[in-house]
Every structure is written in C-alpha cells, then in structure tokens.
TrEMBL record, chain A:
It is a multi-pass membrane protein. InterPro entries: MetI-like, MetI-like_sf. Pfam families: BPD_transp_1. One of its GO terms (biological process) is transmembrane transport. GO terms for cellular component: plasma membrane. The keyword Cell membrane applies. The chain crosses the membrane at residues 92-115, 127-148, 154-173, 217-239, 251-271. Keywords: Cell membrane, Membrane, Transmembrane, Transmembrane helix, Transport. Belongs to the binding-protein-dependent transport system permease family. This is ABC transporter permease subunit. Residues 88-268 form the ABC transmembrane type-1 domain. It comes from Lichenibacterium ramalinae.
From TrEMBL, chain B:
The chain crosses the membrane at residues 96-115, 127-147, 154-174, 251-274. Its main location: membrane. Residues 89-273 form the ABC transmembrane type-1 domain. InterPro entries: MetI-like, MetI-like_sf. This is ABC transporter permease subunit. GO terms for biological process: transmembrane transport. PROSITE patterns: ABC_TM1 (PS50928). GO terms for cellular component: plasma membrane. It is a multi-pass membrane protein. Belongs to the binding-protein-dependent transport system permease family. Keywords: Cell membrane, Membrane, Transmembrane, Transmembrane helix, Transport. It comes from Lichenibacterium ramalinae. It is found in: Cell membrane.
C-alpha cells in the first residue's frame, strides 16, 4: 500500500493555492490588456481589494445612514461591505427557502409514494421523465410562471431540490432491508407507525448523500436563476458587471461565491457526518 | 425461473428471442404506463384551471413539437440561423459531444495520474475539490468575455464540468482497484506499462464509464444555460427567444425535445457501456 503523508500533502495543497494566487498576480503584471479603458482583463490583488472592492458600493441602494452612490454620495468601503452583505443575504435566503421548501416537499411526497410497491411503480416513469428535463434550461419557464423576483427564484430552487430529494427518498426507502419492515409488521405496527419509527430512521444514513447533492444543485440553481433575470443577489451582480465588462468586479464577487459554496459544503458534510455517528460504518453514504 | 437456472438449461440458444420478448414485456409494466397516463391527465386537468398563457395543454405541446421540429419560421424573425428545432438541437448536441469527449480525456488522464502519484494528487486535489463543490456555471460570464459569444465559451464551460466530474470518478475508481491485482501482475513479471494497460485501465473502466453517463446527463443543462447566456444558435437560444415572446408552449416543446435527446444519448451510452463491460462483474 502507498504511504500517505497527510501533513506533507496539506502543505502541498496550500502551496498550490498560494501558487495560483501568485500566478494570478504575475499574469496581471504580464498581461496588461484591458477589457475596456481602465478595466484590466486580469486585475491584480492590489486592485481587487482596493478599487474593485470600493466600486461594489455602486450596488448599495442606500439606507442605514449610508447614502447610495446613485444619489451622489462618494464610494466608501462601508457601502461596499453593506452591498456585499445585502446581495449575499438575498442569494442565501433564496437558497435556504428553496432548500426548505423543496426538501420538505420532496421528502413528504417521496415517503407518501413509497407507501407500497404499487405506488412506487406508478410514479417511476413520470419521475424519470421529469428528471431528464435539463434543470438549468427551465429557468425561463419558471420566470414566466412566477416572475423574476424572489418568488420565481425560490420556487425554481425548490423544484430542483424537490426532484433530487424525492428521487433520493424513493431510492432510500426501496433499499431498506425487507426484514426490518417484516419484523415490525409481524409485531403489529400500522403503516403510519411503521413509516414514523422504522422507515424514517432507516433512510437517514442513505439521505446524507442526497442532502449534500441537493446543496450543490441548490447553489447551481440559485446562480442560474440569478444569471437569467433576477434583480438582486450575487449572480445578478456578476451578470450586471459582465454587461459593462467589469471583469474585476465579476472576479471579486465570484470569489465570494466560491467561498460561500465551499464553506457551506464543508460545514454540511461535517455536520451530517457527526449526526450519523450512530450509523454502522457501511451504511453511511 | 431464476436467470441463473435459465442460463444453465440446455437448449437455451433457440429460446433467446423468446426470452428477449418476454424481457421487453416485463419492462413495459402496465402500472408504470398507468403512472404516465395519470401524469398526463393531471397536467390536462391543471390546464382547465390555469390560462393557456401559463400552462399549455399536453396535446398543444405535442403538436407544437411536431410542427416546430422541422420548421418554425417564427424563430427566424429573432435572428436564429436555423428556424427549426432540429438544427438547433443538432448544434447543441454537437457541442455536448465535443465537450464530453474532450473533458473526459482530460479528466480521466488527470484522475488516474492523481490516484497513482500522491504528489500529483496533493497538487490537484484542492483545485478539483473546489471546482467539484462550486457550480461550474459561475465561470460562464467570464468565458463569454474571454471567448466572446459563440461556440467556444459554451463548449469550454461543459469541458470544464465534464473534466472535473470524470477526474473525481477516475481517481476513485483507480483507488478502489484491489491492490492484489497489481501485485499478482507484478509477481508474474509485468512492468509498469503492462500493469497500466492490462490491469489498471480495464479495472477502472466500469466505474469511469458510469461517471461518463452522469457527466453526460449534466452536460445538457449546462450547455443550454450557456447558450441562454450568450449564443446565436442552439436550444438555449431557442428557449431564450421563446421566453422573450412569452410562449410557454414553445418553451415546453423545446424542453421536451432537449430532454428526449438527452434520454436518447443516455440510452446509447448505456448500451455502449453494457457492451464494453460485459466481462465485468462490477458493472452488473
């Protein structure tokens, strides 16, 4: 077996990230082309964290005693920070609401339709059909139905998550060892009691991968919805900046987005891993 | 009769066609068909409650798909070079195919390398792990500025996604190969190159091909949204144009054709995978 060096590997990983950051800086010095006058194609870190960060205050609509740039105020770091917080909150709230709605709806529907082998067969083909429709291409349809404001995005994210959770639930219930159900039934458990005390706990370990998968899909869905017509949020900031070829702003906001997704994924993976400490090693997905 | 007993029975060969027909009959489950019928009925029922501008009827969408597939003159008014679904579907499919092939070659090579050499793994892991958790879609506006509106930016986006997905699958597959295979081969005198060709590559093929199907399934949506963000043709452009014209019937017909193409591609891929991994117990 190969010998692993966790400490050494961690140092190499850090070095690679540092090298990427440094390479970006070098590229910004070597490749000085501009997307438009005054807007470098590759903005160095010293530009990103001063001028670019400052320019994000354009996105602050005013309030809290900090006037908006659109009303004639000077750009300030405080306004930039508030703008970042405001748009991050919009994106995260949409994601959270969509995850909640979609997760609950998918779980309840999945459990209900796993009631018997008959209902499972009934929903099999329609479900497979719905899953084949490319999710991201459906954004315009949801915007026609629910508008381009918060509701449209939340329903879209909820739909995307709901399909994943629904399929994951049906699959997890199908994989419960039959003996669990038979034993409980033999001891006189009713269907509802069985669902609550046997089915629900038994699918928890298998649902972990579904939950992690839906978080990733949720971030993608909220980004797609914001790219295609939302009026606020991190995705909106990026495409709005793209229309004016403000590459430095796009890069800064994208970095922020990468940070949020990475942190949320790691936190959720740790949290669910800890919650599943009771499950036998082999059952944890 | 169980499948094992079936295959042990003498004189199985002449019965082959019969067992295939029976398998087909088993696959077409009346209850599943009933499920589809109920789904369409619910859709039809909903159209009675909602105005057609919100929810078109199933028959309307089917008819629209039939009409638009070969010729949809309305699309040419919006500057699409191919005023039909067929041409745009072909454009999208070509992009997906090219991107999947290119992305898979990159991803499989880097995945196998990183599973073999811890140093490569330590270097690539932080990049791939980040790219694996962050939606690849984030790169779309950048690609549009760097490469302009056109084929290149959409293909690059999908190449990136496929490469990351397959890197993860290939690395995991290579790590899952039982070391005893390699040790046996080495004991029998195989060099590094033969181990790679005769042991590692065949042993990882089933899992990698599974990853390829997953990447292929995700590629369609990503390609479509890349076209939505900036393109002159393709299904994404069609959907964008139809959304601008508030035409849910047309959007649904376009989505339906795109989804069917994705299913068809997946079926072909599944057939190819089944053929390539007939020898493998893991694939079953």
């Amino acid at each position: 077996m190969k010998v692993r060096h966790p400490t050494r590997d961690r140092w190499i990983s850090l070095a690679v990230l540092a090298a990427l950051a440094l390479g970006w800086q070098v590229l910004s010095l070597v490749y000085t082309a501009e997307a438009q006058p005054g807007e470098p194609m590759v903005a160095g870190w010293q530009v990103l964290f001063t001028r670019t960060l400052l320019s994000l205050s354009d996105y602050w609509p005013g309030g809290l005693g900090v006037p908006a740039v659109a009303d004639g105020a000077e750009r300030s770091y405080l306004a930039a920070l508030l703008a970042i917080l405001l748009h991050s909150a919009d994106t995260i709230l949409r994601l959270a609401a969509g995850l909640m709605l979609g997760g609950v709806a998918g779980l309840v529907l999945g459990l209900a339709l796993s009631w018997s082998r008959w209902t499972r067969r009934l929903v099999d083909w329609p479900l497979q059909f719905i899953r084949t429709l490319p999710l991201l291409a459906m954004v315009p349809l949801f915007q026609l139905w629910f508008g381009t404001d918060a509701l449209g995005e939340v329903v879209f994210v909820a739909y995307g998550i709901g399909v994943i959770v629904f399929a994951g639930t049906v699959n997890a219930v199908r994989n419960i060892p039959q003996i669990y159900l038979d034993n409980a039934r033999a001891l006189g458990a009713s269907r509802l009691f069985l669902t609550r005390t046997v089915v629900l706990p038994a699918i928890v370990p298998a649902m972990r991968s579904t939950v992690l998968l839906s978080l990733g899909a949720g971030w993608g869905a909220v980004l797609g919805a914001e790219y295609l017509g939302a009026q606020s949020g991190l995705g909106y900031m990026i495409v709005y900046a793209q229309q004016f070829a403000f590459l430095d702003r796009m890069f800064l906001v994208a970095l922020l987005f990468v940070f949020y997704t990475s942190v949320s994924t790691v936190v959720l993976a740790r949290l669910t891993g800890r919650m599943l400490a009771w499950a036998p090693e082999g059952q944890r997905a | 009769m169980t499948p094992v007993a079936d295959s042990l029975r003498p004189g199985r060969a002449p019965d082959r066609l019969g067992s295939r027909t029976r398998a087909l009959a088993r696959a077409v489950d009346p209850l599943r068909l009933a499920g589809v019928a109920i789904g369409v009925a619910v859709w039809q029922g909903l159209t009675m409650l909602l105005p057609p501008i919100i929810l078109p009827t199933p028959a309307g969408v089917a008819g629209r798909l039939r009409d638009d597939f070969w010729s949809a003159p309305a699309l040419s008014y919006y500057g699409l070079t191919e005023p039909n679904l067929y041409g745009n579907l072909l454009y999208t499919a070509q992009n997906v195919l090219v991107a999947v092939l290119a992305g898979a070659s990159i991803g499989i090579a880097s995945g196998l390398l990183s599973a073999r050499f811890p140093l490569v793994q330590a270097g690539l892991d932080p990049v791939v792990m980040t790219a694996g958790t962050v939606p690849i879609l984030i790169a779309a506006p950048f690609l549009l500025i760097w490469f302009g509106v056109g084929r290149t930016s959409a293909v690059c986006l999908v190449v990136f996604y496929v490469a990351v997905t397959l890197h993860i699958f290939a690395a995991r597959a290579a790590r899952n190969v039982d070391p005893i295979f390699e040790q046996s081969a080495r004991t029998l005198g195989a060099g590094s190159r033969r181990v790679l060709r005769d042991v590692l590559l065949p042993a990882t093929v089933p899992e990698i091909l599974g990853g390829l199907r997953i990447a292929l399934a995700g590629a369609w949506g990503l390609e479509a949204v890349a076209e939505l963000l900036g393109s002159q043709s393709g299904m994404g452009k069609v959907i964008e144009v139809l959304a601008g014209a508030t035409d849910p019937q047309g959007i649904m017909a376009a989505l339906l054709s795109l989804g069917s193409t994705a299913v068809l591609a997946d079926l072909l891929a599944a057939l190819a995978v089944a053929r390539l991994t007939r020898w493998s117990a893991a694939a079953r």
